Amino acid sequence: FVNTGTIGQSDKFWGLEFANVWGPLSMQGEYGQIDVDTPFFIEGNPIFDGWYVNASWFLTGETRPYDKGGFGRVKVKNPVFKGGAGAWQFAGRYDVIDLSNNGGFVCPACGTQKTWLFGVNWYLNDYTRLMLNYNESDIDGGVNSGAHIKGLGMRAQVDW
């Protein structure tokens, strides 16, 4: 609901991230900032940033394997197709993107967006999961300023 469109010829990006797993609990987060190089701005180049923090917990005791900067496949203890209940996971996330420091660029959709997300994931087996997410976003600035957006998303995922 906030965006800049295409504005830069090049950019400089840097970011920090963290993640850790403690048994059935996992947390991760990331911060990133981008400095857009463009000759079109009188007040200097725009600098945008954003961040998120995410936490999840397996009610059924599974864990998310984490190694060398990435999460691996969840090993379901009691798969549905073998008579079990599968793995159940609750998740929450908060994220912010700030596109308001736009260097004087006329940007109708620039602003700040803050979003809460809550989800339930059901892992049927090691390769299949169903996800249900509810989110609420608040917009400050730009053409959508003052908007409060609610969303519900569902997804089925199979990987191999």
Describe this entry's structure for a reader:
The protein is mainly β and 160 residues long. It has one domain (10-158). It has no helices and nine strands. The protein has strands at residues 10-22, 25-37, 47-58, 66-67, 70-71, 87-98, 112-125, 128-140, 148-158. The strands form two sheets. A seven-stranded antiparallel beta sheet has the order 1-2-3-6-7-8-9, with no helix packed on it. It has a two-stranded antiparallel sheet with strand order 4-5. β1 and β2 form a beta hairpin. The protein starts with 9 loop residues before the first strand and ends with a strand. The model has no long low-confidence stretch (mean pLDDT 90).
Radius of gyration: 19 Å
Strand/helix succession: EEEEEEEEE
The share of residues in extended strands comes to over 45%
Distance between the termini: 33 Å
Task: Specify the helix fraction band.
Answer: under 10%
Unreliable spans? none
User: How would you sum up the global shape?
Assistant: elongated
**Whole-number tally of structural domains:** 1
Strand elements, count: 9
Features:
160 residues; two-stranded antiparallel sheet; Porin_O/P; Porin domain-containing protein; Porin_dom_sf
